[in-house]
Write a structure and sequence with these properties.
- It is a single chain.
- The chain contains 15 helices and 20 strands.
- With about 450 residues, it is α+β, with helices and mostly antiparallel strands.
- An 8-stranded antiparallel β-sheet has the order 13-12-9-10-11-14-19-17, sandwiched between helices. The protein has a 5-stranded parallel β-sheet with strand order 3-2-1-4-5. Strands 7-6-8 form a 3-stranded antiparallel β-sheet, with helices on one face.
- A hairpin with a 4-residue loop joins strand 9 and strand 10 (about 220-235).
- The chain is globular.
- The N and C termini lie far apart (about 50 Å).
- The model has no long low-confidence stretch (mean pLDDT about 95).
- The structure holds ligand MV4.
């Protein structure tokens, strides 16, 4: 096991990782920007190092500073959390060159999944069902038209370097294809410095369902069920739940087994998430995330596993201690992302939290780095707390969530809490009857 782990992140996830380290008896190093000197992740760590100015590019994305912080403190591993450097293959390589363990998959797997065309090609070869599409890059308009006719309109033009929805354009018919391609190309070039595009059949009303995997790189891989992340706005997830209200037991087991087998064959190492669109009773692979995700908590609640502890053990070279048949799924969990934002406009609301009271009681978990008197800096994302509720059934979970949201006090800044309180009363939410467009439609009709 490691002696000391440096956590290259901030906020609730930095605390989440510290907790796992403490339970493993591993010392922790926090890094922080000048804007985060008073942050909880700095206060609770064994040691801390200021790595630069407030903008993320000067601190949390500053690789030389992070490597220097490892050398100064003698950290033998780095946990990247999510966002920032979590899916930066070059960062993983640089750490290895300095004999520091990157707590995550191999740099090759991070790089492979970062290219969405290669990721999809890999998934297909591994027997994972993928969205019908171009099976490679779009070269010219003539080829694109031929491919799109085969696929069938509407088609979606996607960026190979993309993800998170950037550089995506729908072409409802052939008339719109040329403009969709040229717009996607320039957006992709500007955002990623790469204008490689591919085509897919555009699915109109899918759900976003993702499968959590855990693998040791030695050929052992298991799945930890799925999460339904369909409730989102502008590619920002707001509500995630496990299990998905849309799946039956047989669908769940089939997709889980397919993904676990694929990750075994890939010799994948670490935690990972295989993302699908689900429509008409079918799964279609879109992307794979090679990091710990914000919403890993709902999987933890229904499996009783600590994903971060498992992740650290695997990075330290331990084989998986669990077999698929050891995993028991228990009850239902929902996560609400409490952001410092206006609940209707989603305009960020940085500022000082004057009162902060978190809910508690059976089945209620709050992951947060916020406290009364804390000033939310304007430089980073607006997540201030994750409220995760667990109960035996989805109905009980909704009742508990309503109770917990009612207890939550955050004064001084606006939050997304009122949105969640209103969602609990919506028949479609109670029935689990929603797709990836439901929330934006609901807000527009508001
Ligand atoms: C799609 C799609 C419909 N059809 N692909 C958006 C981000 C990227 N991860 C994949 N995305 C989508 N890909 C096909 N072939 C619709 C989306 C999409 C979406 C996906 C998941 C969660 C929220 C979304 C919101 C809008 C569009």
């Amino acid at each position: 096991m490691f002696d000391k782990v440096l956590i290259a992140n901030r906020g609730e996830i930095a605390l989440r990782i510290q907790r796992a380290c403490k339970e493993l008896g591993v010392a922790t190093v926090a890094v922080h920007s000048t804007a985060d000197a008073d942050a909880m992740h700095v206060r609770l760590a064994d040691e801390s190092v200021c790595i630069g100015a407030a903008p993320a590019k000067d601190s949390y994305l500053n690789i030389p500073q992070i490597v220097a912080a490892c050398e100064i403190t003698g950290a033998d591993a780095v946990h990247p959390g999510y966002g920032f450097l979590a899916e930066n293959a070059r960062f993983a390589e640089i750490l290895e060159e300095h004999d520091i363990t990157f707590i995550g998959p191999s740099a090759e797997h991070v790089r492979l999944m970062g290219n969405k065309i290669e990721a999809k090609d890999t998934a297909r070869k591994l027997g994972i069902p993928v969205v019908p599409g171009s099976d490679g890059p779009v070269t010219d308009l003539k080829q694109a038209k031929r491919l799109a006719r085969e696929i069938g309109y509407p088609v979606l033009v996607k960026a190979a370097a993309g993800g998170g929805g950037r550089g995506m354009k729908v072409a409802p018919t052939e008339t719109e294809l040329e403009v969709a391609i040229s717009t996607a190309r320039s957006e992709s070039k500007a955002a990623f410095g790469d204008d490689t595009l591919y085509l897919e059949k555009y699915l109109m009303k899918p759900r976003h369902i993702e499968v959590q995997v855990l693998a040791d790189g030695l050929g052992n891989a298991i799945h930890l069920g799925e999460r339904d992340c369909s409730l989102q706005r502008r590619h920002q997830k707001l509500w995630e739940e496990a299990p998905s209200p849309a799946l039956n037991q047989s669908e769940r087991e089939t997709i889980g087994a397919t993904v676990a087998k694929a990750m075994q064959d890939l010799r994948y190492r670490g935690v990972g998430t295989v993302e699908f669109l689900y429509e008409g009773g079918e799964f279609f692979f879109i992307e794979m995330n090679t990091r710990l995700q914000v919403e890993h908590t709902v999987t933890e609640m229904i499996t009783g596993l600590d994903l971060v502890i498992e992740q650290i053990r695997i990075a330290a070279g331990a084989p998986l201690s669990l077999r698929q048949e050891d995993i028991r799924f228990n009850g239902h969990a929902i996560e609400c992302r409490i952001n410092a934002e206006n609940a209707r406009t989603f305009r960020p609301s940085p500022g000082t939290i004057t009162h902060f009271h978190t809910p508690g009681g059976l089945g209620v978990r709050v992951d947060s780095g916020a406290y009364a008197g804390y000033t939310i800096p304007p430089y980073y994302d607006s997540l201030i707390a994750k409220l995760i509720v667990h109960a035996r059934t989805r109905n009980e979970c909704l009742m508990r969530l309503k109770r917990a949201l009612g207890e939550f006090v955050v004064d001084g800044v606006e939050t997304t809490i009122p949105l969640f309180i209103s969602l609990i009363g919506e028949p479609d939410i109670v029935d689990g009857n929603y797709d990836i467009h439901w929330l934006e439609k609901h807000l527009a009709e508001g």
